[in-house]
Amino acid sequence: MKFFIYITLTFGLLLTGCLKTEGILKIKGKVVDESSKEKLPWRDIIVQGLVDSSNKLVPVNAGQFSTDSTGYFTYLLRKVKNAYYYNFCFVGDSDYAFMAKEIALIDLKKNAQYLSFSLSKLVDFTIKIYRKSQTPACDTLCLSWKSNGVDGRTLYPYKIDNYGLMSDNQLYWIGGKVKSTIKTKAFADKSTVVRWVLFRNGRLKEIIDTITCRRYLLNNVYLKY
Q1: How far apart are CA 126 and CA 160, in angstroms?
Q2: Residue pLDDT, tens place only, 154-197
Q3: Bridge-partner residues for 191, per DSSP?
Q4: C-alpha count within 13 angstroms, C-beta hemisphere, residue 3
Q5: Is the pTM of this model over 0.90?
Q6: If DSSP codes are grouped into helix, strand and coil, which group holds residue 55?
Q7: Where does residue 137 rank: exposed (0-12), middle (13-18), buried (19+ CB within 10 A)?
Q8: Which parts of 56-171 are beta strand (E)?
Q9: How far apart, in Å, do the first and last CA atoms of the chain sit?
Q10: How far apart, in Å, are the Cα atoms of 90 and each of 45, 105, 128, 173?
């Protein structure tokens, strides 16, 4: 499933119809896994020229393409008039996170035949919570997490298998009986910090757990409170 990227690129794509170009630049390169350096086939790439408009850089669609079966690409890029910087946007999915890299036109020309991009691998990540306490009758638990500094709720869509009273659109659980599982993704081989805040008997308690999610392993954290 590909997501997020389409929202962030919509405005630039809408401007395609009024695109003013000034020549073609032939680019070549590869896309690799940042850790293993394995080349990544069939990765979708959208390029935007950044044009100054009212002292703001406005993204304008300059083209889109994919790596081939070997992880390499060759593409004739339309140079956007008055664009001195370009965004290379890599569509995110369940295997690799969305990534955007800005390159100055002067550097793009210099390295046009030797471009290389690295993507961050995503792995399955599960958070489980269980309220074992019988007293007080009501307390509140709040959950958040960050993977490599990125808010986990924006990194990848999460799914909740929930038993208990949960606040709408928020990761808050209001006790009595709570038993929930949150299934999502996190960056492989990078630190993921999970933070719970428990409001009980008029006091606030912060609980933090840190995990480095590994490839090919089950990556879980648990909280019993």
Answers
A1: 10
A2: 999 999 998 777 776 679 998 778 999 999 999 999 999 999 99
A3: 212
A4: 11
A5: no
A6: coil
A7: exposed
A8: 56-66, 72-80, 83-90, 99-104, 115-119, 122-130, 140-147, 150-151, 159-166
A9: 35
A10: 5, 18, 31, 35
